[in-house]
Amino acid sequence: MRHYGESACPTILRAVYWWVKPVPRPAQTPCVFLCLLFAVLANAKAQTQQPPEPPAIFRAKVDVVLVPVVVRDKQGHAVGNLRREDFEVFDKNKPQVITTFSIETSGSAPAKTAAAEPMEAPTGERKPPALPSHFVAYIFDDVHLSFSDLAIVRDAAERHLNDSLGPADRAAVFTTSGKTTLDFTDDRAKLHETLSLLRPQPIARPPGQQCPDVSYYQADLIVNKNDPRALEAATEDALGCMNLDPPDANLARPAAQAAARSALTAGDTSSRLSLGVVGDVVRRLSTMPGQRSIILISPGFLTLVNVQPGKAGIIDRAIRANIVISSLDTRGLSTAISGGDASQAVQPAGKTQYQSAGALASEDVLAELADGTGGAFFHNNNGLVEGFKHLAARAEYVYTLGFSPQNLKLDGSFHALKVLLKDPENLSLQARRGYYAPTHIADPRETAREEIREALVSREELHGIPVGLRTELAKPGESGAQLAVLVWVDVKRLPFRKEDGRNCDDLAVVSALFDGNGNLVKDAHKDIQMKVPDQTLEDRLRSGIIVRNNFDVKPGSYRIRVVVRDSEGQLLAAANGAVEIP
Q1: Domain check: are 481 and 526 in the same one?
Q2: Contact 374/325 with Cβ under 8 angstroms?
Q3: How far apart are CA 329 and CA 361, in angstroms?
Q4: Which pLDDT belongs to residue 537?
Q5: Does the N terminus or the C terminus of the chain have fewer Cβ atoms within 10 A?
Q6: DSSP letter for each residue of 273-318
Q7: Which of 44-48, 219-223, 386-390, 417-421 has the lowest mean pLDDT?
Q8: Core vs surface per residue 146-166: b (16+ CB within 10 A) or e
Q9: CB count, 10 Å around CB of 66?
Q10: Which CATH number belongs to the domain containing residue 231 in this structure?
Q11: Residue 524 above 80 pLDDT?
C-alpha cells in the first residue's frame, strides 16, 4: 500500500510533469434565480414518471439487475431506434423503474488505442499493428451429443470457420467433457485439427442399452415428483425387456425404480458438468479484450430445480462481462422430438410420450442462455452451416435495461421478469426470463475487485476520473525490453472524504498487457492511500500524480489497458494504448 501524505509530497512533485488547467469556478448565481430554478425542477419531476438521464459518472451498481433485450421487426431484423421510455419491465408482475439504459451495436468500432489526454505518444513512434477485437468460443457438448450428430455438426463447423474467420477474429474450442480444448487462436490448421479430435464422451449409457430404459426426464418425475404414471410407464417397459408377464409387475417395479435412480444420478452429473463448463468458459472469455461471444453446440439437456441457480448465475455473469451466449440445437429437424428414430423398434406409448416431453424440455437451457444474454437460438433447422454463420454474427442492436429492485429479500428466491414494449406493433422481443435474489450482501472489497477486472478486459474508455497513459521503452534487444507504463491521475477531481482536516481517498491503479491473440500477458496492481491536507492538494498536487509500472517484455505487439478506481466515490477510469516491441 502506498501512502500519500505531507512527507510524500516532494517525491510526488518531482514525478509530475503534466500540467492540467484548473477548472474555472462558476459565476455566482442570484438567490432568486436559484429558487425559481428549483421550483421548476420540482414541478417537472412531479409531472413525469421517467427518471432523469444518469450523469456521466461510472459507479459500481451492485444492486442493479441488468436485462439485455433484442427487438426485431417482422423480417427478423434487429431494431435500434427505441428509447428507454419505450420499454416496461416487471419483476414478479410488479412494474419497475428503468434506471439505466444503453444500446450496443455489433458494428461499433473498438475503443481507440491512442493515448488518453493529456499525454501524447512520443514523436516518431511506429504505429502498432491492428489487434484482435472479436473472440468466439465454440463449446461442443460432447457429453450429450450422439456420434451421428457430432459428425454432422463438426463438418458444418469446419466449413463455417473456413469462410468466416477474419484477421481481427480469434476462435477457441472447448468441450463439456474437457477432453478436447484449444485456446484462442487464428491458426486455422490448429482449429481444424482440434475439431477432428471431437468424439462423444457420454456419462450415461445411450438410450436402448438399459432395462428398463428410463430417461433423465422420466427419472425426475419418478424420483423427485413421485409421479405414479411415469413409474407405471417404466414398469411396463421393464416387463417387456425382462420378458415378464403383467402379473409380475411387483418384480418389474423395483427394477424400474432402481433404473430411475441411476438415470437421475447420471443425468444430474451430465447436466452439472455441461453447465459448469459454460460457466468456466464465461470466466475465461471475460478476460479477453473486445467483443466476446459463446456458441454452445448441444442437443440440449435438462437443468432441474437444484441446477437452476447455477444457470441464472452464468447468465448474470455473462451480462456483466458483456458476453453474448448463442446456442445451436444439433438435432435440427430430428424425429427425436416427435417420438424417436423411425428405424428403431416401436416403443410403448408411455415411453414415447416421456421421450418427446424430455426432448422438448431439454431445449429450455439453450433458449434461456440465448434469451438471457442477447444471443440467438438456432433450432428446428437442418442448415447447420447457416446456423453457425447466423450465431457468430451478433445481433446488430442489443439494449440493456437496468433496474434496482425495491425491498429485495436476501432469500435466493427466483424472480420472474417480463419485458414489454409500450407500442409492440409488428415487433417481437427477446429478453431475460428471470434472476435469483442474492443470499447475502456483497462484500464491497470483492465488488471493487470484480469491477476493476471487468473494466480491465473491456475496450471502452471510461472517464469517471481524468487519467492519461504513456509508455517508455528501455533496453531494447533481441531477447526483449523493459516497458514502463506511466499513468497520470488528476487527483484534484477525486471525491475526497474529510477526516481530521485531510482529504482521504484510496486509489487502485492497474496496468495490463495483452498479446496479439488477446491473452493477458502481465498485469500490475498498485494501491495508493491518500491523506492530503488542503494546502498540499492545492499547491503541490494540482497537476496530478504519476504511477509507474515496469514490465519485462519479449518482442511482439501488445495492447495496453489501464484502469483506475477510487474507493470513496467508486469512480472508474480506463484508457487504452498499444505498443510494438521490436
Answers
A1: yes
A2: no
A3: 12
A4: 87
A5: N
A6: HHHHHHHHHHHHHTTS-SEEEEEEEES-----TTTHHHHHHHHHHH
A7: 44-48
A8: beebbebbbebbbebbeeebe
A9: 18
A10: 3.40.50.410
A11: yes
The parent domain of residue 476 ranges over: 2-22+445-581
Helix H or strand E segment including 271: helix 249-285
What percent of the chain shows pLDDT beyond 90?
Answer: 48
**Tell me, what's the pLDDT at 40?**
38
- Note the pLDDT of residue 208: 62
Are residue 400 and residue 251 in the same domain, yes or no? no
Bridge partners, residue 220, by sequence: none
Specify whether the CB–CB gap between 375 and 136 falls below 8 A. no
- pLDDT at residue 332, as a whole number: 80
Decide if 511 contacts 470 (C-beta within 8 A).
no
The rounded distance, in Å, linking the Cα atoms of 489 and 491 is 6
Pairing mode, strands 520-533 and 291-298: unpaired
Same domain, 449 and 436: no
CATH of the domain at 90: 2.60.40
pLDDT surpassing 60 at residue 49: no
Q: Is the pLDDT of residue 242 over 70?
A: yes
Closest CA to 456 of 523, 515, 402: 523
Q: What is the pLDDT of residues 286-322, one digit of tens each?
A: 888 778 899 999 999 998 877 777 888 899 889 988 8
Spatial separation of the C-alpha atoms in residues 492 and 505, rounded to whole Å: 11
In-domain check, residue 219: yes
* Beta-strand runs (E) in 125-204: 134-140, 169-175, 182-185
Is pLDDT above 60 for 46? Answer: no
Please count the other Cβ atoms lying within 10 Å of the Cβ belonging to residue 328.
28
